[in-house]
Amino acid sequence: MIALVQRLVCTLVLLLASVGSAQAQEMADHFYEWKDVSGTGIHHFDTSLLWKEIPSPRGVVQYTTDTVELFGDVEGRILYQPVTRILLDTNTLINRGNQVFSGTVLGVGPVMLHDDQFRFEVDLVTGATTGKVWLTNRIAGPLVRCQLDIVGTGMTPEGNALVDYTGKCRMFRNPAPINRW
User: Fold this and answer.
1) Is residue 181 part of a domain?
2) pLDDT reading at 142 higher than 50
3) Over the range 1-36, which residues count as b (16 or more CB within 10 Å of their CB) and which as e?
4) 157 preceded by cis ω (within 30°)?
5) Cα angle vertex 81, ends 69, 52, to 5°?
6) Number of folded domains in the chain?
């Protein structure tokens, strides 16, 4: 009998928690909205720092620090620390690692956002570049989260990569200015 009562209590607690969770999500959706964003960027290879390069059976692995400037709806600078895998058997370059964005989103900010899930892929034969960015870990500033799709558009005369981005950012509906003074 005690085991039955314990199971009933656990079931009731789980049901109440799921109702509370749904209500919390509904409240969050009321205060936040997704907004479309777009713009351009430049990946500064000319200031890149190569920390380590390791040969691998399929090519090479590089550890670098780079900067990326974004212009448009998401405007600011990214400190970018990719682990680059250059795969010679598939003529592909893949970047993953960590990056921190500092700037504004749709004029709101400044904000600092971290991303450790991004993925960029470059076809080494055609130069076609695509990527996905998840600036979802807030470090400082207003509550903002962005998901961006990146497409390479060419190179500058200095050899820096040009990109276009589109995506969406989840923002507080009416952000109040930050005034802590």
Assistant:
1) no
2) yes
3) eeeeeeeeeeeeeeeeeeeeeeeeeeeeeeeeeebe
4) no
5) 130
6) 1
